UniProtKB/TrEMBL annotation:
<dbReference type="GO" id="GO:0005975">
    <property type="term" value="P:carbohydrate metabolic process"/>
</dbReference>
<dbReference type="GO" id="GO:0030246">
    <property type="term" value="F:carbohydrate binding"/>
</dbReference>
<dbReference type="InterPro" id="IPR011013">
    <property type="entry name" value="Gal_mutarotase_sf_dom"/>
</dbReference>
<protein>
    <recommendedName>
        <fullName>glucose-6-phosphate 1-epimerase</fullName>
        <ecNumber>5.1.3.15</ecNumber>
    </recommendedName>
</protein>
<dbReference type="Pfam" id="PF01263">
    <property type="entry name" value="Aldose_epim"/>
</dbReference>
<dbReference type="InterPro" id="IPR025532">
    <property type="entry name" value="G6P_1-epimerase"/>
</dbReference>
<dbReference type="GO" id="GO:0005737">
    <property type="term" value="C:cytoplasm"/>
</dbReference>
<dbReference type="InterPro" id="IPR008183">
    <property type="entry name" value="Aldose_1/G6P_1-epimerase"/>
</dbReference>
<comment type="similarity">
    <text>Belongs to the glucose-6-phosphate 1-epimerase family.</text>
</comment>
<dbReference type="InterPro" id="IPR014718">
    <property type="entry name" value="GH-type_carb-bd"/>
</dbReference>
<dbReference type="GO" id="GO:0047938">
    <property type="term" value="F:glucose-6-phosphate 1-epimerase activity"/>
</dbReference>
<keyword id="KW-0413">Isomerase</keyword>
């Protein structure tokens, strides 16, 4: 481990700690081919994921507000312990607005989670304030890693260190950068039931073979398979989303009207983003005292015709 607590396999990868304009640490992960990822301690949020050609794969709004306590509009905000307004907490819970810490001594993981990867271990523990609004002691450990082939993995371990059970929801609210919303399609959600946030969370069944976009979409697909694909015809590439412990998939594009009502969204920028999240929302996860939940999201790209 280097003095920062960020870790890498020295032979193949590099990890660097920098500060953002607010003095908050950011960790830059690099692989030997030149792919990179950048993670902020604010929110434990991945803000950038680039190919070895330097091409950004995650969307960040040109009007994103980089000043805490606002979460950054883009990258991969973590919604925890609540998704959206499905509960008594603020929208998407508090984790995305908290300062996480580097975890210098994480409990061991499988060697496959480390070897050949650049990675950093982060931890979030509740503050006194958090405990007032959500009275459950937890440890949320997050490992963000970049593999030699440029895949980005977010591995979460959430432990109940309280004396009573608690339940939570979680989503990795992944803003993919796309060529144009009218050029993409999502596969892996066909025939699934979904809850439509645009219709008071009413339940519908997906009828199409693939999902394409012509207007605002704000849905939670239920119990999907562990692989979902976002095809971008114009860029001739496909994002592969592999997930474990995350049964649901959020699909969100605000379209023109809603994005115009958001102060941190640039004009027409809704065309260049699509959120497809690995999530556990409909059935919240319950942890008994001492229990731990593990969830994994792995993102990769493959060329397509
Ligand atoms: O603006 P935010 O709080 O970041 O939420 C952005 C979006 O997140 C999810 O996709 C919700 O389903 C949407 O209803 C919400 O608009």
């Amino acid at each position: 481990m280097n003095p920062s607590g960020a870790v890498c396999d020295q032979k193949v990868a590099a990890v660097e700690v920098t500060k953002d304009r607010n003095g908050i640490d950011q960790i830059v992960l690099r692989n030997p081919r030149g792919a990179s990822a950048r993670v902020s301690l604010f929110g434990g949020q991945v803000l950038s994921w680039r190919t070895d050609q330097g091409e950004e794969l995650l969307f960040t709004s040109s009007k994103a507000i980089f000043k805490p306590p606002n979460p950054v509009r883009g990258g991969i905000p973590i919604c925890f312990p609540q998704f959206g307004n499905r509960g008594a907490l603020e929208q998407h819970g508090f984790a995305r607005k908290k300062l996480w810490a580097i975890d210098y001594n994480p409990p061991p993981l499988h060697p496959n989670d480390s070897s050949g990867k650049a990675y950093v271990d982060l931890i979030l523990r509740p503050s006194e304030e958090d405990l007032k609004i959500w009275p459950h002691s937890f440890e949320f450990r997050l490992r963000v890693s970049l593999s030699a082939d440029g895949n980005l993995t977010l591995l979460s371990r959430i432990r109940n260190i309280n004396s009573k059970p608690f339940s939570f929801s979680i989503a990795y609210h992944t803003y993919f950068a796309i060529s144009d919303i009218s050029e993409v399609r999502v596969e892996g959600l066909e025939t699934l039931d979904y809850l439509d946030n645009l219709c008071q969370k009413e339940r519908f069944t997906e009828q199409g073979d693939t999902l394409t976009f012509e207007s605002e979409v704000d849905r939670v697909y239920l119990s999907s398979s562990d692989v979902v694909a976002v095809f971008d015809h114009e860029r001739k590439r496909t994002f592969m989303i592999r997930k474990e412990g995350l049964p649901d998939v959020v699909v969100w594009n605000p379209w023109e009207k809603k994005s115009k009502s958001m102060v941190d969204f640039g004009d027409e920028e809704y065309k260049q983003m699509l959120c497809v999240d690995g999530a556990a929302i409909e059935k919240s996860i319950t942890l008994k005292p001492g229990e731990e939940w593990t969830g994994r999201l792995e993102l990769s790209i493959v060329p397509s015709s």
